[in-house]
């Protein structure tokens, strides 16, 4: 470990001595953690603190979304194998991307990161990778590797635009970032404007069941994350006053007593999964809907008015940590307020998003109604 760190430190000093003063241009940005980060003149090799940052990186990298990825964690393959295989079919080189960890912060080390010789590392404020207090960050900073933090998970509605703008800057994809930001804001504004005159008492309570059926307990978002997306779409997150953090456990008894009129279930299980919501690139609409209804009716949940009346929506779990959540917001808004959302078409948004920004074609099912 010490030898690798020493190599990077000495290499940085040598480069500074060899380059004429006029050629040394270190632009500084402020990341989502409030850190000042000096950028390299050229970014050819990127490390992703989470593999699922590919959802976001692909929006900016055009026809070659993997070209600059020098290393990443294995969470994409482990937690969303369907998307991994979707990219693998078109980009078989995905199998050759070195792993810097599995799917948790503890499995990542600075030595693994430095071994792939990155020009830049991209981490997230929260999730499965190193955070702002990690030793990995300290060691990378000491070795002279720039690290920027973005956020699409903790405060997605506040942080998505500045995170995309930051990535555009550090990846030298500013035009692409601004083009996506314009698309994102226009589509979010369609929902915002349609709900302008909606009274507060017409915003229904929504139970959000995170990866329901895949865990023994019921988990739901508190403040931020998917909870704030529900609010933006015209609902009230049932667990907002129950869960102090970003997410936490809620009791079925408390949910039954609250009798929420709407129920949102997230999941990303594979076609052959024994339980939970089957959703993603390899799932057809019928399989998704069948798994939605089966999971929603498990145990005592079948007593809820939302379940009995068919006010049930299933959604791809990973919307919660990607700018793609714009489509989920539109789908939720149409589900809760169909009369107000005549001009909002999430399916069309999904197709245009792929056509304009992504290298892979849309496939599978990412949301489905219980009706």
From TrEMBL:
PROSITE patterns: FE_B12_PBP. CDD domains: TroA_f. SUPFAM superfamilies: Helical backbone' metal receptor (SSF53807). Residues 45-344 form the Fe/B12 periplasmic-binding domain. InterPro entries: ABC_Transporter_SBP, ABC_transptr_periplasmic_BD. This is ABC transporter substrate-binding protein. It comes from Leeia aquatica.
């Amino acid at each position: 470990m010490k030898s690798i760190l020493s190599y990077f430190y000495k290499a940085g000093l040598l480069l500074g001595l060899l380059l004429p003063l006029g050629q040394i241009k270190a632009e500084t940005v402020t990341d989502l953690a409030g850190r000042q980060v000096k950028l390299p003149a050229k970014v050819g090799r990127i490390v992703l603190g989470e593999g699922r940052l590919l959802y976001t990186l692909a929006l900016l990298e055009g026809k070659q979304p993997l070209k600059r990825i020098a290393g990443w964690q294995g969470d994409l393959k482990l937690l969303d194998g369907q998307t991994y295989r979707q990219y693998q079919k078109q980009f078989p080189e995905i199998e050759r991307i070195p792993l810097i960890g599995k799917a948790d912060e503890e499995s990542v080390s600075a030595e693994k990161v430095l071994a792939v010789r990155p020009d830049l590392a991209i981490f997230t404020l929260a999730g499965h990778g190193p955070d702002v207090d990690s030793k990995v960050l300290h060691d990378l900073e000491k070795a002279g590797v720039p690290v920027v933090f973005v956020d699409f998970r903790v405060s997605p509605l506040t942080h998505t635009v500045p995170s995309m703008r930051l990535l555009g800057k550090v990846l030298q994809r500013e035009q692409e970032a601004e083009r996506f930001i314009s698309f994102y804001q226009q589509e979010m504004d369609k929902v915002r404007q349609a709900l302008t005159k909606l009274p507060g008492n017409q915003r229904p309570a929504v139970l959000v069941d995170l990866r329901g059926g895949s865990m023994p307990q019921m988990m739901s978002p508190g403040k931020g994350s998917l909870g704030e997306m529900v609010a933006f779409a015209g609902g009230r997150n049932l667990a907002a006053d129950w869960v102090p953090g970003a997410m936490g456990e809620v009791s079925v008894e408390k949910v039954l007593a609250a009798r929420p009129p709407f129920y949102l279930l997230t999941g990303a299980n594979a076609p052959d999964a024994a339980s939970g919501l089957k959703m993603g690139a390899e799932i057809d609409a019928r399989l998704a809907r069948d798994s939605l209804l089966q999971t929603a009716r498990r145990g005592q949940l079948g007593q809820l008015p939302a379940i009995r009346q068919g006010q049930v929506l299933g959604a791809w779990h990973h919307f919660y940590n990607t700018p793609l959540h714009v489509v989920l917001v539109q789908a939720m808004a149409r589900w809760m307020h169909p009369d107000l959302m005549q001009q909002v078409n999430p399916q069309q948004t999904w197709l245009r998003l792929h056509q304009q920004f992504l290298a892979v074609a849309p496939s599978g099912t990412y949301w489905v109604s219980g009706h």
